[in-house]
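It is time I had a proper look at our fold encoding. Can you supply me with one protein entry, sequence and fold together? It will help me judge whether the discrete encoding reads sensibly. Leave the record below and I will have a look:
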Amino acid sequence: MAPISVGANIFRFITWICLVTSYRQSSRLFVRQLTYETIDYLIIISLEVSIHAWEMISLCLLDLSNDQFNGTFSSLLISNLTNIESLFLSNNKFQGMVSLSVYANLLRLIELDISFNHLEVEAEMMSPSCFLSFKLSTLSLDGCNVKKISPWMLHNITSELWLSGNNLTSPFISNFQNITSKLTLLEISDNFLHGTQLKYFNLNFPQLRHLDLSNNSFNGNLPMFFKDQLQMLDLLNNQFQGRIPHGMTSNMSCLVYLRLSGNNLKGDLFLKNSSLPNLKWIYLNNNHLSGTFPYALLKSMELGMIDIENNDLSSELSSYLPVLQKLKVLLLGGNRFEGKILMQICQIRDLWILDLSENDLFGDIPHCVDNFSSWLDSSYGGYLPVDSWNKIDLITKGS
């Protein structure tokens, strides 16, 4: 559906509006005459909002995200939204200091997203009453200059907490050892968090399915804190060291995405009895891992992405080159693999990117490479993370 262009005074003179009658079933649209008091769901695209927008006392969902709204966001504007359940204000140009205590007065609020504005968010609850009343399913404060993770966040948020790109600096877990959180998603990437006290993580966050600690300064050995239900784990660009714990590769049967790139890990990648049956993306590049190609990955039949370049892996590659039918990207450059590239690579029919550079390989590239249908068809629409394309010196599709 194309965006609808409307005038700047829509809320002052409106008599007809396009109403999404169900946010979760938004394919059905009805047009009817409305008053401020009867609007339940409102998604606004590319227009100015007058003060009347905040007089819709029946509104339960308001989405102003991804526009160019600016100015100071006054608490008076939202005080009348007494029935609001979902409030999305992300990716605008709102300015100033905002206290989350303001939103605690919206007793029905369960989803709040004010990410990526020009705000400085005060996350502390100023009174015990605010702490008790402010219970959310999802809180998104990415890029909001938050300086501290408050304990109430881990107590009161029951599903998702997004805090990437802030100014969090203290040791993360040391103040929360007695807290058991219901969070299923914790996103705290791109901060300044540090420390080694992560061994209790499994107890603090027993229901986590998505964990992103990337681009911080955590150090020490990788902890054994991960539950079986974890599906996404990202520890990119920290200072973890030591070996990859066997439990990480044997007890996490639901894991789909694993990224340990840019640390100081060493030792063998995986033991032979490792098993990650649902794994689709694995990034272990830019470490100090040694040994042979991780043969255990051949059991991960869903794999579409393998990146283990820039390590110290060796052995004759022809003995281990994976034949995985769903593999799209295989990055092995910057290691010490040796030998010839055997014809078995021809069995990976959907291979899109292959990097074997900076190894000790010799001989000819099999002729079948030129005939891969996936290399000739540029319409592939599957998911390839952006960093798949970084620092690639390789044969690419269509060249």
